[in-house]
Write a structure and sequence with these properties.
6 strands; 138 residues; six-stranded antiparallel beta sheet; elongated; alpha+beta
């Protein structure tokens, strides 16, 4: 029993330490970061709208709620080098009609822009049991 407890404590410690290492860039890294060319709010909104207009069943029904553009960062998974990328992000909620003509409900997306181009998109789809997760789609 004591051995199992020690293993549990060790596992919790490793988990805490690994979580601490992914909390984001330090103030020094942030201060010297290259975010690329800034993007204006309207320009980012236009790119997001165009992106969805090309991919949804009924672009005319699409309702997009835009967040503010802000300086941000993302970290690639460790299996893809774990590098940190800086840029500008915007979170959006999208509700559009599907092929059955029904609205899908708000789905969350986070767009990262580098040098005024879409660099990375993360989606937060809902599973059948209403659980959500974030996953890279671009």
């Amino acid at each position: 029993m004591a051995s199992q407890f020690k293993h549990l404590i060790l596992a919790a410690t490793v988990l805490c330490l690994s979580a601490c290492s992914t909390l984001g860039p330090s103030e020094e890294e942030w201060a010297r970061a290259d975010f690329g060319a800034p993007i204006q709010q309207q320009e980012a909104e236009d790119m997001v709208k165009y992106y969805f207009d090309q991919r949804v069943e009924d672009p005319n029904s699409t309702q997009i709620t835009y967040g503010d553009v802000k300086k941000d960062w993302m970290q690639h998974p460790l299996m893809n080098d774990g590098a940190t990328t800086f840029g500008y992000t915007m979170e959006v909620k999208v509700n559009t009609r599907n092929s059955l003509g029904r609205f899908t409900g708000d789905e969350g997306f986070k767009f990262m822009f580098r040098n005024r181009q879409i660099y990375h998109i993360v989606a937060q789809p809902r599973l059948s049991n209403d659980v959500t997760y974030m996953g890279k789609i671009y």
